[in-house]
Amino acid sequence: MTLSHLATEDVFVVERNDADFRAGQGMTKGLGIVFRKFRKALFGKPNSDRADTEGQFNVQYPEERLVLPEAYRNMPILLYDDATGHELCTSCFQCERICPPQVIHITQAKDPATGKPVPAAANFVLEYDTCMSCGYCAEVCPFDAIKMDHDFELSTGNHPELDVNYDRLLRPISYYEAIAPTMWSDVKEQAMKKLQNNIKRRPGAIGRDHGQKIKGGAAVAVAATPAAGAAPAAAAKPRGPVAAIGKNMPEEKVAKLISIRAANAAKRGGGDAGAAPVAEAAPIVETVVDTPAAASAAPSGPVAAIGQNMSEDKRAKLEAIRAAKRAQRGE
Amino acid sequence: MADALTQLGFASWLSVLIASSIKVTLILVGGSVGMMFLTWYERRSISYMQDRRGPNRVGPQGLLQPISEAIKTMTKEDATPREADKIVHFLAPVVMLGATVLSFAVIPWGRMFPVDLNAAVLFVIATGGLHSIGMMMAGWGSNNKFALLGGMRGVAQLISYEIPQVMAIIPVVLMTGSMSLQKIVEAQNDFGGLGWYVFSPVGLLGFALFFTASLAEGERTPFDIPEADSEIIAGYMTEYSGMKFAVFYLSNYMSNLAVCFITATLYLGGGNGPGVDALGGFAGGLLSLIYFLLKSFALFFVMVLIRATVPRLRVDQLMSFAWKFLLPLVLVNILSASFWVALLRWDQQWPQLTEWFGAPSTADATNWGRLAIAVGLTLLINAGAVALIMRLTNRNVQKHLYTTDEELALGLS
Ligand code: SF4
Ligand code: SF4
């Protein structure tokens, strides 16, 4: 290790030369160094140059803030186009697959007319509490739809609030451009091209109309002051533990959960309280029904996950291959 | 105060009681407020030494931080271990605090509130010794091995360092010819209030020795092994929580404060300083109080500086430092103090010598000449002793820590 970044008078080499007379010179020198530090920190200016080894290094946090480097990453967010209001995400599941702690949960949207999956996400849930900010999702996303945010003030008294849904994840591109201008300009062209292609491939009704929210003012304000960092649509959607818990469960499990909660609420003996969980739980059933796996009553488990994006005949082929393999193994 | 109350028509026993209660309350309040200030002072200073800013949020410059912490400790759960000796466990912090508060009784606060006890030095030493009882009570009563170990180490340290500490005061007592702290302060009033003992060779060495030993007495770094947090968790305080823990802390800081006061009194001239005599009266008294507090807090700053610089000693290093280094130096210092006193004023202190044995009177020589001789001689003795003991200690270290190749070859070790 090199000590060249330290002032030379800071480096005190202890020489164990027994011929030398040791009468506390070392200690006096040490006290001197510490006293000099004290003097400089007390009377000098707060240190602004990180290469300097003396002066106060504190940043008085809520009032003063360090400028975050562009590549700083905290939690993932999803981008949408300011002009059209279209999300960039195509529900390709790349991020869900790569995520090491598996905290991304995507539900693919379907064309209501044909029932076929379209390149858009119906819901997108990210467990912020378990995300480790590795940034893999942002690296892997072919559409530059998921990016890492700079907002680190996420503390909450309500733990399930850290399961963040689609609406709370969405930010306009202008917001990301404000926090990471060069990083966005690097990918801007291809991302916008892909977005145009993507919009062509999905029916008009699919995707969310974020354009109006922008015109409404709230989202624009967020985009203009990135430090505020609040989710643009956060207030619009009911947040709550129940919605979060149900998101990945199969139908029957959700039903069971609801009945258990109802029973518990009845035991607590509140008429009002009993009504609440059921009412809260209702949207879950909807969400679950939405998912292709549940709707087509296809085989559950890994097959369902793999097959989600395939055409029907491809899926049939896959099933045939698997059946043959199982037969080979003698099951 | 008692007299004034009697004149107001109170019964004499009642007026004494009321006056004493007021005084005790004042000392207690002063002590705890002083301790609160000290915790803030220490944390602020040490944070600047570490390029930080320290507590600065609660109140102006963080001055109300100790109060918020007091509220916090008071609202904390007060847990006593089930197997602990309840009474002893409860009484230990009381004994500790009591021992500390007692030593505040004799401190001469500049010239404002003269308290004269003609054996004040003895009193300070005696109350200092009570700490080890409290420590052992805490260690034993907690019924916890870490606590017992911490208490044992603490008591061993206190007893070891008490000896050099007490003996370091002897030169001062010799030079003054009195054990009263008031007289000791008065004796340092020469040269326009600057005749502090620390300016004489004997006093300088005595000051260094006494202050070092006092650091160990007050369990300050580098001698904080009774509570060595990295080794025995928190030592004798392991099983204490909430306000009981805070009382230990209080007593610790108050005793550090007392040590600073007493060091300032013994060696740094107490409230003496230029201008005190000239002003006289109330203004002079106030100035002397300011001098006294300034000196004490400067000493406390040195304690903080040492804490920020020096790492903790190992327990065997601690013991050998006390017995092999401090103690011999203290003995030499007593010797040179005797020479000092004899040269300077043996015919004043012991007139019998001239009377009975016909020894020459020191009044014959000029004052400055005698002073020069005394300074030279004691300087010689002290410096020689320091050098010799340094050499001896160094050689010991060398012998025991390193094995030379030749020794290995000869199979000597
Ligand atoms: S940052 Fe890493 S852990 Fe967090 S969601 Fe993305 S891939 Fe998963
Ligand atoms: S990788 Fe990108 S486009 Fe694909 S699902 Fe994730 S966020 Fe959407």
Automatic annotation (TrEMBL), chain A:
<dbReference type="InterPro" id="IPR017900">
    <property type="entry name" value="4Fe4S_Fe_S_CS"/>
</dbReference>
<feature type="domain" description="4Fe-4S ferredoxin-type">
    <location>
        <begin position="122"/>
        <end position="151"/>
    </location>
</feature>
<keyword id="KW-0472">Membrane</keyword>
<keyword id="KW-0408">Iron</keyword>
<keyword id="KW-0874">Quinone</keyword>
<keyword id="KW-0677">Repeat</keyword>
<feature type="domain" description="4Fe-4S ferredoxin-type">
    <location>
        <begin position="80"/>
        <end position="109"/>
    </location>
</feature>
<keyword id="KW-0830">Ubiquinone</keyword>
<keyword id="KW-1278">Translocase</keyword>
<keyword id="KW-0479">Metal-binding</keyword>
<dbReference type="InterPro" id="IPR010226">
    <property type="entry name" value="NADH_quinone_OxRdtase_chainI"/>
</dbReference>
<dbReference type="InterPro" id="IPR017896">
    <property type="entry name" value="4Fe4S_Fe-S-bd"/>
</dbReference>
<keyword id="KW-1003">Cell membrane</keyword>
<protein>
    <submittedName>
        <fullName>NAD(P)H-quinone oxidoreductase subunit I, chloroplastic</fullName>
    </submittedName>
</protein>
<keyword id="KW-0004">4Fe-4S</keyword>
<keyword id="KW-0520">NAD</keyword>
<dbReference type="Pfam" id="PF12838">
    <property type="entry name" value="Fer4_7"/>
</dbReference>
<keyword id="KW-0411">Iron-sulfur</keyword>
UniProtKB/TrEMBL annotation, chain B:
<feature type="transmembrane region" description="Helical">
    <location>
        <begin position="246"/>
        <end position="269"/>
    </location>
</feature>
<keyword id="KW-0812">Transmembrane</keyword>
<feature type="transmembrane region" description="Helical">
    <location>
        <begin position="194"/>
        <end position="216"/>
    </location>
</feature>
<comment type="similarity">
    <text>Belongs to the complex I subunit 1 family.</text>
</comment>
<feature type="transmembrane region" description="Helical">
    <location>
        <begin position="322"/>
        <end position="343"/>
    </location>
</feature>
<keyword id="KW-0472">Membrane</keyword>
<keyword id="KW-0874">Quinone</keyword>
<keyword id="KW-0520">NAD</keyword>
<feature type="transmembrane region" description="Helical">
    <location>
        <begin position="12"/>
        <end position="41"/>
    </location>
</feature>
<dbReference type="InterPro" id="IPR001694">
    <property type="entry name" value="NADH_UbQ_OxRdtase_su1/FPO"/>
</dbReference>
<feature type="transmembrane region" description="Helical">
    <location>
        <begin position="371"/>
        <end position="390"/>
    </location>
</feature>
<comment type="subunit">
    <text>NDH-1 is composed of 14 different subunits. Subunits NuoA, H, J, K, L, M, N constitute the membrane sector of the complex.</text>
</comment>
<dbReference type="Pfam" id="PF00146">
    <property type="entry name" value="NADHdh"/>
</dbReference>
<keyword id="KW-1133">Transmembrane helix</keyword>
<feature type="transmembrane region" description="Helical">
    <location>
        <begin position="87"/>
        <end position="107"/>
    </location>
</feature>
<feature type="transmembrane region" description="Helical">
    <location>
        <begin position="289"/>
        <end position="310"/>
    </location>
</feature>
<keyword id="KW-1278">Translocase</keyword>
<feature type="transmembrane region" description="Helical">
    <location>
        <begin position="119"/>
        <end position="142"/>
    </location>
</feature>
<keyword id="KW-0830">Ubiquinone</keyword>
<comment type="function">
    <text>NDH-1 shuttles electrons from NADH, via FMN and iron-sulfur (Fe-S) centers, to quinones in the respiratory chain. The immediate electron acceptor for the enzyme in this species is believed to be ubiquinone. Couples the redox reaction to proton translocation (for every two electrons transferred, four hydrogen ions are translocated across the cytoplasmic membrane), and thus conserves the redox energy in a proton gradient. This subunit may bind ubiquinone.</text>
</comment>
<protein>
    <recommendedName>
        <fullName>NADH-quinone oxidoreductase subunit H</fullName>
        <ecNumber>7.1.1.-</ecNumber>
    </recommendedName>
</protein>
<keyword id="KW-1003">Cell membrane</keyword>
